[in-house]
Amino acid sequence: MAEPAAHTFTNDLAELERLGQVVEEFGRWQHLSATRLFDLQLAVNEVFTNVVQYGFDDDRPHEIVVRLIAGADEVVVEIEDDGRPFDPSTAPAPRLDVPLEERPTGGLGLYLARRVTDAMDYRRADGRNVVRLRMNLGEAVAIAEARRAGVLVLRLRGRVDARTAGTLAARLGAAIDAGDRRVVIEGERLVYVDSAGLQALLVAAKRLRPLAGRIVLAGLQEPVRRIVDIAGLGSIFGLYASESEAVAALG
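The structure corresponding to this sequence follows.
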């Protein structure tokens, strides 16, 4: 795991803007998908806000240290403060199954932070609270399936790399086995692809060719499209600006 990047903030809600910028820069450097980046920002903001609003017994300025740590399979954020002892991982979940009139107005923040991250843990060290948020990168690809005019559309979100390419390969293989011959890979929210991801597409395209089938790519972001072009695959698959154009081309 890389050395943490530490940033110091004061216990002031005005710091949320700078905190959001710091987390966004870190998430983009880690190639987090838009959804995972949103989740990370939400979790960090909720923990930070809870510390500012409820962590101190006085009105004096206090330092809150946020450490951003990049790992091979996860990202970690530590939030450290010198407020009263409090373990947010043990905060009770709000009652979501009661009528509106009976629902309390608070309690959602830490619940959301726990739900959108893969782990939250806490320790008290040298008179300071340290909350650690973990987010896995190992399954950072999501594939949503749709059908339009008889065409299978697979909408990718996140990263397709050596760790996750097998997920895409398996989905494509199952579709071909089930009789699908026209496939659109929609990549508007695909933020990263490497050689393993391209290989998964090539294997499927080779299987489809003798079956008079075809895969086309649609809506790719510029960095991903550039890699497809460098690999000389644009002419093999066909690149379309939108899902609708790709479906029409196959139809």
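The first strand starts at residue 5 and ends at 10.
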